[in-house]
Amino acid sequence: MGLAFPAIPQELLADTKVSATLAAETLTRLAKFAKSFAPCFTRSEQGTHCRTYLEGLMSDLHRKSIEPIATAHCDPRRPLQRFVGAGKWDDTDPRDKLLRRVASEIGDPQGVLVLDSSGFTKKGKHSVGVARQWNGRLGKIDNCQVGVFISYCGRGSATLVDADLYLPHEWTRSRARLDHVHVPRDIGFRSKIEIAKQRLEILSPALPHAWVTGDDEFGRPAHFRRWLRRRKETYLLDVPSNTVIRDLEAPPPRPLPGRRGPHSKAPFQSVEAWTKSLPPRSWTRVLVHDGEKGPIEVEAASCRVRTKHQGRLGPREVLLVTRTLEKVPDVRYSLTNAPATTPREVLTRVAGARHHIEESFEVAKGDLGMHHYEVRSWVGWHHHMTMLLLAQWFLTLEHRRLGEKISGADRPDDRAASEEAVA
Description:
15 helices, disordered C terminus, twelve-stranded mixed sheet, alpha+beta
């Protein structure tokens, strides 16, 4: 039994009114969407549970965990609980199909893969991966689980496309503890960087893109940037303010009188110190994107640099610094291996793509119950996140469909592509 009138998240309803008919039409499209993923499951009832769970995530339930979803559908709790928490179906199949749909609908040769981690506060200590660790959402050490996520941005849309759970060291010291929550035998300790590498090896060939970007958690390790270069990936990754660089475009200091030998080079300094030394003419104002309250602009500066870490010189890269226009600006520092001729405006807009994954998290946690799960096992966490990825992709399709309708655009080719993606 389906939900009678599932609520459409507020993100979908901006500048429009929702009738019962529109809600019913959305539910029909969601049922068709869920049915298209039914072949990914080993048993027919699993396809039914997939639809039930997706409807629950898309509904207006106050808490979108298994019991409220089952109750709203007048279904028994245990079958849905087994489907999410211990279902013997492989997350790989629906995720692979999702990637094909995303590539078909919003695939873009200039697309951007965005890396980020996110924490989920948990009170107990028995759920897989729960430990006292950094929770970026709260900005502090917290008792939580942490996942590594990847978002894809292309053709004016963005959606989460991947999720994997990080296991702290204390969890991987005990095989018995891992077995208790059904962590696969081939999974041991993996840093967040190692998880990102593993997931990019899968996603990179599947999704057309020109860029990989992320915050300083991923930009700080020089070995990760080196790994991306070896894979011929173009990255633009944030780095901490104390990252040491040499400005390759700065005029060399004047030699001391009577000194012979090679010409002196510009000294190494932190990116923060370099930024503070810039004259006003070094900054360019760039439109990043149109926000809800108007255009979002920043000022940007850049130069060719070499980094230095633990006495070792890095390759030639481009440093991009962006700052907001407030009286006390938010300053971000990024390194990229893009050609030095890449326009500053292009680099700034690529850096701005990071806001898409932040928006995706806001929608996933605010509208789709991303953090409402009550499962303890490795399988349960990944099953829930797979359903979450599907729900957000459906939401993205609805955004695109309603966006065309609101704007009055009549583009049969795009509409057909959307129908094919749902079919």
